[in-house]
């Protein structure tokens, strides 16, 4: 009975922290209203944000007040429960403005909200008809989702108690010993890059509104654009170069950024994942340009511009584009699919399988092959270089990564099969669901306002799994079911 009582107290603590996050979402909903004095024609949009905002703040306050008497350290599993519930609540509340305004139906609004918070960038809205307040709201979702919803809204508030929450969000990049300080440092780095991106975009010729939205979307590797043709709308080499730099910054582990800011350039370029990223691009870009893209565009310069931009966008899981993919050979499409599956850096705003995992799997293959060439009794300690230094890789770590990759590909195959069942071609289905699961946002046309409801919901689930990763859902689900049974059994007694 003592354990059951403690369990109930822990769930009260969890629910109380959820209240804090709900308050945070309510405050975030007010941010798009800051531009209403500039776009005075959008005054009527205020109510669509104000209603869910007030509801969230009041509800969050009530939940927090009723359940959070004191703060305590969170375990990893408790952090997982908060993260999963926080994401579901946040997505529903964030979709409300689209529903209240009548711009999207429930499924479409949920899709847009999930795409925003998971920093995917696939969209079912018509940006030419969507009010600026809603376009800015999409970018705000990507900003907060990229930094880590629960990490931003809770870890900075509850300090060292948020370690379980920090890890449950998929964060292994503790820059400093204290979680709160790490979170604040991440946000400082994040905001500094965004401000720099906005300034550079304006200098390059963007207006201030487009600059804000594209800087946020590029760094969060989100890819929501205010233009129908994405970055291609501007047809500017300078804007493309700025975007490439921001996409690179967004896909790099925050702990690696910390090394750069400390001036430890040599240590930065010794990181295995960083070297692997540059190796992939140095191999994929020239091969794709030479084999597949030459002859499609008018000049060699245009071909190189397109090849570099699109492949960086795919690997970084940003989803910005400068061209459509009609007429692209299957070889180029295959390379894009492979890069979207690999994805960005661990501990970054990017999605995908993650470069670190792929790097470890390839290294383990090489280590195994080497094992056949050395005497049996030889003791070897294999390691990789991570931002914090040498990491000696235990077999358990490799097994966990392999298990994750297996689950990832099973989900990917299921998603592709659903699209095939609706009559979409294999190549397009593979591309679209690789983009969905990798939270990339590039599309060959399957995702649209007319997309069948089941496909949209399969993409919603795919984006959620891709962003939060499978084990968080698994552990949180197992904990909730097990604890519910225990408390139910106790209640009957």
Question: How would you describe what is shown here?
Answer:
With about 500 residues, this protein is mostly helical. Helices cover about 65% and strands about 0% of the residues. The chain contains 20 helices and 2 strands. It has helices at about 1-30, 45-65, 75-100, 105-115, 130-145, 150-160, 165-170, 180-205, 210-220, 235-250, 255-260, 265-270, 270-295, 300-315, 330-340, 355-370, 395-420, 425-435, 455-470, 470-490; strands at about 385, 390. The protein has a two-stranded antiparallel sheet. A hairpin with a 2-residue loop joins strand 1 and strand 2 (about 390). It is globular. It is found in: Cell membrane. This is Trk system potassium uptake protein TrkH. Belongs to the TrkH potassium transport family.
Key traits:
493 residues, mainly alpha, 2 strands, 67% helix, ion transport, Cat_transpt, transport, transmembrane
In brief:
With 493 residues, the protein is an all-alpha fold. It has 20 helices and two strands. Helices cover 67% and strands 2% of the residues.
Write the layout of secondary structure elements.
Blueprint: H1 2-28, H2 46-67, H3 76-100, H4 106-117, H5 132-147, H6 149-158, H7 163-168, H8 179-204, H9 208-219, H10 237-250, H11 254-261, H12 265-270, H13 272-293, H14 300-315, H15 330-342, H16 355-371, E1 383-386, E2 389-392, H17 395-421, H18 426-437, H19 453-468, H20 470-492
Antiparallel strand pairs: 1-2
Helix pairs in contact: 1-2, 1-3, 2-3, 3-4, 3-20, 4-5, 4-19, 5-9, 6-8, 8-9, 8-10, 9-10, 10-14, 13-14, 13-15, 14-15, 15-18, 16-17, 17-18, 17-19
């Amino acid at each position: 009975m003592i354990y059951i009582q403690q369990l109930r107290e822990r769930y009260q603590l969890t629910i109380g922290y959820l209240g804090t996050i709900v308050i945070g979402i309510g405050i975030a909903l007010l941010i798009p209203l800051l531009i209403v004095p500039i776009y005075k024609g959008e005054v009527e949009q205020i109510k669509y944000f104000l209603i869910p905002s007030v509801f969230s703040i009041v509800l969050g306050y009530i939940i927090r007040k009723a359940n959070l008497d004191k703060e305590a350290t969170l375990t990893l599993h408790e952090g997982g429960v908060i993260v999963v519930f926080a994401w579901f609540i946040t997505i529903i509340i964030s979709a409300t403005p689209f529903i209240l305004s009548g711009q999207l139906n429930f499924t479409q609004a949920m899709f847009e909200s999930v795409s925003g918070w998971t920093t995917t960038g696939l969209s079912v809205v018509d940006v030419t008809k969507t009010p600026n307040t809603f376009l800015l709201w999409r970018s705000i979702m990507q900003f907060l989702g990229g930094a880590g919803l629960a990490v931003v809204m809770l870890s900075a508030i509850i300090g060292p108690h948020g370690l379980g929450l920090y890890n449950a969000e998929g964060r292994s990049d503790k820059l400093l010993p204290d979680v709160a300080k790490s979170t604040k440092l991440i946000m400082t780095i994040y905001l500094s890059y965004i401000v720099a991106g906005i300034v550079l975009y304006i200098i390059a010729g963007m207006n201030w509104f487009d600059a804000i939205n594209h800087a946020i979307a590029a760094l969060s590797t989100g890819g929501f654009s205010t233009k129908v043709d994405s970055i291609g709308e501007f047809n500017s080499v300078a804007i493309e170069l700025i975007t490439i730099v921001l996409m690179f910054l967004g896909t790099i582990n925050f702990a690696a950024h910390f090394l750069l800011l400390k001036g430890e350039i040599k240590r930065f370029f010794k990181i295995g994942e960083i070297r692997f990223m540059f190796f992939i691009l140095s191999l994929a870009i020239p091969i794709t340009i030479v084999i597949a893209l030459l002859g499609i565009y008018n000049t060699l310069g245009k071909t190189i511009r397109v090849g570099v931009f699109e492949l960086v966008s795919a690997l970084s899981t940003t989803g910005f584009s400068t061209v459509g993919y009609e007429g692209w050979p299957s070889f180029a499409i295959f390379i894009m699919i492979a890069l979207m599956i690999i994805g960005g850096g661990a501990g970054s705003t990017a999605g995908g399988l993650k470069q670190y995992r792929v790097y470890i799997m390839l290294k383990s293959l090489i280590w195994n092959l080497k094992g056949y060439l050395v005497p049996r009794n030889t003791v070897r300690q294999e390691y990789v270089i991570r931002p914090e230094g040498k990491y000696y890789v235990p077999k358990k770590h490799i097994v966990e990564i392999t298990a994750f990759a297996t689950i990832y590909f099973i989900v990917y195959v299921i998603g592709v099969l659903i699209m095939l069942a609706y009559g979409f071609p294999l190549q397009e289905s593979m591309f679209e669901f690789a983009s969905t699961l990798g939270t990339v946002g590039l599309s060959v046309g399957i995702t649209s306002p007319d997309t069948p409801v089941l496909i949209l919901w399969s993409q919603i689930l795919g984006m959620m799994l891709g962003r939060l990763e499978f084990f968080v859902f698994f552990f949180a689900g197992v904990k909730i079911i097990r604890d519910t049974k225990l408390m139910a059994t106790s209640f009957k007694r």
